[in-house]
Specification:
Length: about 250
């Protein structure tokens, strides 16, 4: 028996409801449940990550085109720009500031640009997750109506973009790269550093991954980091407890 009432949900009620509303929004405007079921989640073992890491921008362009094809948005006209210490020079008069997140989706006039941090070139899986997020921005920009809740809270658009990346099949990469931990050591000591990539919480990404897998009739994600496997099981348990969740998405 739970001392404070019923069993706790995997996500808070309002967060779960927002996720399901956003999934229905994407199913109505991007691809239906059958399309989602046919989209196998992208994993770190995919052939597109088999090439040795390179610091050359051309390797990022190859990966960019592969991610576009995987997501089914090959028609995205955005130009890929690598940020430098001086920023990304797009043309004679336009420079993109180097400061900011690991990637960005920007519109200048009638032109679109997706930028990325050059340090991601040595981490192609993480680069793919970032590029997928920015391409999801483009996909949402083609929908006339904003995501649920975006009219009241601008940050919702970024959260919906992270969720859309999971919808497109990038849930495993998104979850694996949400938090990064590294050890730092020098002549005067050592320590640990952590960083966060994206906007949707780790649990939010796992819940969307579980929804994607459930729509495919699957439960397992072997390439998911071991520490996230228990959370995935909890998300599946929540979906199992209320069959109306999947029925509503399939409808």
């Amino acid at each position: 028996m739970w001392l404070w009432g019923g069993k706790k949900r995997f996500l808070e009620k309002h967060l779960e409801e927002w996720q399901l509303d956003t999934w229905r929004y994407l199913l109505a405007n991007v691809g239906d449940a059958k399309w989602v079921a046919e989209q196998a989640p992208l994993t770190p073992g995919h052939a597109m990550f088999a090439r040795p890491p390179s610091d050359d921008h051309s390797s990022a362009i190859i990966l960019f085109e592969q991610i576009k094809e995987y997501m089914g948005i090959e028609d995205c006209p955005a130009e890929l720009v690598k940020r430098t210490e001086q920023g990304g020079q797009v043309d004679t008069y336009l420079f993109l500031d180097q400061k900011g997140p690991l990637g960005s989706f920007e519109q200048h006039g009638n032109s679109f640009y997706i930028t990325y941090s050059p340090r991601l070139l040595r981490e192609p899986v993480h680069l793919a997750a970032v590029l997928g997020h920015e391409l999801a921005h483009y996909a949402l920009a083609t929908i006339p109506d904003p995501p649920p809740g975006a009219d009241e809270e601008p940050l919702i658009e970024e959260l919906a973009t992270d969720l859309a990346a999971c919808f497109f099949g990038l849930g495993i990469l998104q979850a694996n790269t949400a938090f990064a931990f590294s050890q730092q050591q020098g002549f005067d000591g050592q320590g640990w550093a952590s960083s966060f990539s994206g906007y949707l919480s780790e649990e939010g990404r796992i819940f969307s991954l579980a929804l994607h897998l459930a729509l495919r009739g699957e439960r397992e994600a072997p390439d998911l980091k071991p520490r996230l496997q228990a959370k995935l099981a909890q998300a599946h348990a929540r979906i199992d407890a209320e069959p109306a969740i999947l029925d509503g998405l399939r409808a």
